[in-house]
Amino acid sequence: MKALVYGGPGERSWTEVPDPVIVDPGDAIIQVDTVTICGTDLHILGGDVPAVQPGRVLGHEAVGTVVDVGSGVSGLRQGDRVLASCVSACGTCRYCRGGGYGQCLNGGGWILGHLVDGVQAQYARLPFADLSTYKLSPQTSDEAAVMLADILPTSYEVGVLNGRVRPGDTVVIVGAGPIGLAAILTARLFSPSRIIAIDKAESRLEAAKQFGADITLTPDGDPLEVVRSVTDGLGADVVMEAVGVPATFELCTTLVRPGGHVANLGVHGKPVTLHLEDLWIKNVTITTGLVDTYSTPDLLTMLNAGQLDVSRMITHRFAFDDFMRAYDVFSDPMSTGALKVVLTRG
């Protein structure tokens, strides 16, 4: 089969690799029907995730059809159409029993496209398949479902819920890429008084308006003055970092009000300065996190009920054989206007 293979920092190829096989009784093999590229994949290619070794098949967001299951799989059968979660869960360790699947102690967590081969391929092996897949109803399209593999639960859990967004809050989201846009979409479920989106790219700021941002501005547009002007000088109740670079995290800590929350969503590959000389007195809560995907069933329910419209996330569509071009487009959003790119078997 063919797959998108990591060759080391800056190196990737769409090339022939061996077909996946059942390794553990809890495994399932899927035919990958729809897949997407994540900003985390770009961080891997940038060398920010050194645990990923050359030769690894990338990708952790897919919808597929089950073609084989291990002897220990009880909830799936050949022909089932499933969403493959970006997080794998053993279901029995201390963290999994508490819903903290991202910290699984028995070989789960974020492993797809990280510690084991991922789903940017024609076929993929899914460990802990019973607990790491979600059967899809006929009314749920592949394109909509794949948005719930990672970006929607990540933004909802690590951003909105960890940040404790409440009705009437002023919410600032720094970074209006796919994760930031998903944060806007899910933050609106809690009726904040206003959402402010900050990004360098005008195309992404325009997208932020379509997803529900009330105010959009660039980092050069004096974000601190804007936030203070609409909060009687207090600052934002919740600020989310959705980029993953030191400057944006430090910006977030300047925009939050005393007693507010900074929720970090970005994948960071470099140290960040934490200005405790300014923050120690402000009662600020800072949260970090890897998504656990405990919210995926609820998000699927809201999606099927029409409460979440993720269709506008997708700006570009490709066939599997155009994987290299899809990466080029996704990695250059300033010129391409790309948000999420989707690739299909065709």
Structural features, described:
This protein folds into 2 domains: 202 residues, Medium-chain alcohol dehydrogenases, catalytic domain (Quinone Oxidoreductase, Chain A, domain 1), CATH 3.90.180; 135 residues, NAD(P)-binding Rossmann-like Domain (Rossmann fold, 3-Layer(aba) Sandwich), CATH 3.40.50. The mean pLDDT is 96. The two termini are 15 Å apart. Strand 9, helix 7 and strand 10 form a beta-alpha-beta unit. With 346 residues, it is of the alpha/beta class. The radius of gyration is 20 Å and the shape is globular. Helix 5 packs across helix 6. Strands 3, 4, 5, 6, 7, 14 and 15 form a 7-stranded mixed β-sheet that branches. Strands 10-9-8-11-12-13 form a 6-stranded parallel β-sheet, with helices on both faces. The protein is built from 13 helices and 15 strands.
Tag the structure with descriptive keywords.
Quinone Oxidoreductase, Chain A, domain 1, 13 helices, seven-stranded mixed beta sheet, alpha/beta, 2 domains, ADH_Zn_CS, Rossmann fold, six-stranded parallel beta sheet, 346 residues
Please outline what is shown here.
This protein has helices spanning 39-45, 94-97, 129-132, 142-146, 151-161, 178-187, 202-211, 223-229, 246-255, 276-279, 296-304, 323-330, 333-336; strands spanning 2-8, 11-16, 28-36, 62-69, 81-84, 123-126, 133-135, 170-174, 194-198, 215-217, 236-241, 256-264, 285-287, 314-319, 340-344.
